[in-house]
Design brief:
mainly alpha
């Protein structure tokens, strides 16, 4: 088996390279070259610095295979954008970034505006910064963002090894590196790849802080949250909310000596300050998106408005009102299991439907670990964090009312959710 893995990896890379060249106009091949050089260096450096120290039993050949499949996922998404749909968010980021970069190269940042934008516009500015340094290349940016998401997978895996060194890593390894949706969706120029990339740092920071009381974990956490906050500040707020409960448990169970109190006090002080800033930023962002205020009624109206915005089209479905027990249970099923087989109307939806069945069966097989983790809910703040974050993300994604968006955005949730089962 170990002998055939490099052969498969080579075949996948050659196929991906051939497809990529066919999708790239001749005049753009030179522009793509710097991206390819950087991306080619990622897997070996990442393996030596992040994977091997955490799990020396993870074969380099298998890691390279995962990277090759990730690149195939990226080129497949590029093919869908260029040849199948001929439109998409990535095209907008590329075009806007190419335009803004002409100003940035002259050190003219007045086009950014008086305030730092977030969301879609911020993604365009990030692309512009990239194109200020490197030649504009839609194809190259796809590969680079896929590599960033792969770095996120590596840090999720590293976090799991630090959190549960006694657990056989093969199950979590298979999920975070080889799950089709993780290989496919966060593999293009866009917010999905960026959030997945940053979330890996968040996971590693939380684990490092909670497990080892290492304040370096707080730095990793802050770094990841800042990257997330640039694009989706409300997700950064979800992290703070989830970590608040985990930190409370951590603090209460580690007050036996001044040495044990020091890390929680310093880390907690930082998190409180970061939390205040994050929630203010998130509230401003959601007010821009239609939130009328900070009251409960305003939140309900905001959730309902988001559901109606995304409801419609071939992938739309009638969403439940999730702010209540009666709506929460169907929301869990919708986020984790849909689209069902009979709802799949294109290859991507069919892939998501089959994958949901596959990993639902695997998770059922892992149910003993899940119940064991829940029994340790008050004793293990990492479990508290993973559970609360999963619940909050499910509530957020459930407002979308669109199966296509759900399949894409639940990918951000899955690595945290799998911490409860692996």
């Amino acid at each position: 088996m170990q002998q055939i893995v490099p052969v498969i990896t080579t075949i996948l890379l050659l196929f991906s390279g051939g497809l990529l060249i066919s999708l790239t106009p001749g005049e753009d091949l030179i522009s793509m070259l710097p991206y390819m050089i950087i991306v080619a260096a990622v897997p070996k450096i990442l393996y030596d610095l992040a994977i091997k120290p955490a799990d020396s039993g993870f074969p380099l050949s298998l890691f390279l295979l995962a990277f090759a499949i990730k690149m195939l996922g990226s080129v497949s998404r590029l093919w869908m954008l260029v040849d199948v749909y001929e439109r998409g968010d990535s095209m907008r980021y590329h075009q806007d970034g190419e335009y803004w970069a002409t100003f940035f190269r002259q050190f003219d940042f007045s086009v950014v505006g008086e305030t730092v934008s977030r969301g879609t516009e911020a993604m365009s500015y990030l692309t512009a910064l990239l194109y200020t340094i490197f030649p504009p290349s839609l194809q190259g940016s796809f590969l680079l963002f896929a590599a960033l998401a792969f770095i996120g997978s590596a840090f999720f895996y590293k976090a799991h090894r630090v959190a549960y060194p006694e657990i056989d890593p093969k199950f979590y390894r298979a999920l975070v590196f080889f799950l089709p949706s993780i290989l496919f969706w966060p593999s293009s120029l866009g917010k999905d790849a960026w959030i997945f990339f940053a979330s890996g740092f968040v996971a590693y920071g939380v684990v490092k802080f909670v497990r080892h009381r290492d304040l370096a974990g707080v730095l990793w956490l802050i770094f990841g949250m800042l990257l997330i906050g640039l694009i989706r500040p409300h997700i950064a707020a979800f992290v703070v909310l989830s970590l608040g409960l985990a930190y409370l448990v951590f603090f209460l169970r580690n007050t036996h000596s001044p040495h044990q109190v020091l890390a929680p006090l310093i880390g907690g002080s930082i998190l409180v300050g970061l939390g205040i800033y994050t929630f203010q930023t998130s509230l401003e962002f959601m007010v821009q998106k239609g939130l009328a205020g900070a009251s409960w009624d305003a939140v309900e109206q905001y959730f309902y408005a988001k559901q109606q915005t995304h409801y419609g089209g071939g992938s739309g479905y009638a969403p439940n009102v999730v702010l209540g027990i009666a709506g929460f249970i169907p929301a869990i099923l919708a986020i984790l299991m849909r689209p069902f087989i009979w709802e799949a109307h294109n290859p991507q939806a069919l892939m998501s439907a089959l994958e949901s069945i596959l990993w639902a069966g695997i998770l059922w097989h892992q149910r003993k670990i899940f119940w064991q983790r829940l029994r340790n809910l008050t004793a293990d703040p990492l479990v508290s964090f993973a559970l609360v974050y999963s619940i909050v993300m499910i509530l957020s994604i459930a407002t979308l009312g669109n199966l296509g968006l759900i399949a894409r955005q639940r990918v951000q949730l899955l690595p945290f959710f799998f911490f409860l089962f692996a």
